Amino acid sequence: MQRRHFIASGLAATAAAAVPFFAAASPLPTAPVRIVVGFPPGGGTDVMARVMAQKLATAWGVPVTVENKAGAGGVIAAEYVAKQPANGTVLLMTNISNHAIAPALYPTLGYVVERDFTPLVLVGVTPNLLICNPSQPARTVKDLVALCRAKPGTVTFGSSGTGASQHMAIELFKLRAKVDALHVPYRGSGPMLTDLIGGQIDYSFETMTSATPHVASGKLVALAQTRLQRSPAHPQVPTVAELGYPGFDASTWYGLVGPAQMPPEMVQRMNEDFNRVLAMPDVAAKLASYGAEDGGGAAAKFTAFIATEKDKWAQVVKEAKVTV
């Protein structure tokens, strides 16, 4: 499969032209804007939100802040944003957890993805990295599978929470490798990574965004990555697919959404500005360093992407018999 560019060349050309964001009459909110994140500071979703917020504040001429509402794999934040006014002042940096996995996992979810949100833009798709503390004896996928089979149900895998992308990557790995392991959910990637570095848990399929600094520093070791092709951010790390599990794809993705029924002209203008931000060389380089690819495009593209992801992970939840 031919790898797609992170940002289309047309977007880059737009950025190069330095078109002012306020060139036309603006349907944007004039009050401060909050981007709500469903996880504590330090995780991948939080990092993506802060990269966007800084640029948008400058572009829109109003404060754009990040507000962390952690809990339930991002569901608490999503439920909160779904109930906010559709005036563009409260947005959600959503991800795979609250928009694709939660609908299949929570029988009494307080929102319906298609009904209660307005997709705005896909920010990026990143692999997860299968990581461990350097003290772990099993430091290849082959050895890890053997360890899980030798000690079924005892090798621990941390995640940022039940229903998070890391959790689903574990469940998919268990299904494909036919092993049993113990899932240990945390309240966000930050505390999970602290315990992983400290040796309190054994492994994690952590987002490349938040795992990369710790792998670069040598505090953690990357065994594999989880998209079908290797990310240019970690070209030396093999994919799970190429290590004997063809088709294994457990990506994390991030995107901006607002409450339902946002004015179409506001949606269009926000989408255009988000694409301009994503095309900025420093932003593109920052996201690429974390393995974030395939971002940008129309709001309709993001809507279709969400629908595909929902179907995919509903099947994994069903096959793995995952319950909350």
UniProtKB/TrEMBL annotation:
Signal sequence extent: 1-25
Family stated for the protein in its record: Belongs to the UPF0065 (bug) family.
Species of origin: Variovorax paradoxus
InterPro entries membership: BUG, Bug_dom1
CDD domains: PBP2_Bug27 (cd13578)
Keyword vocabulary terms for this entry: Signal
This protein's name: LacI family transcriptional regulator
Domain of life: Bacteria
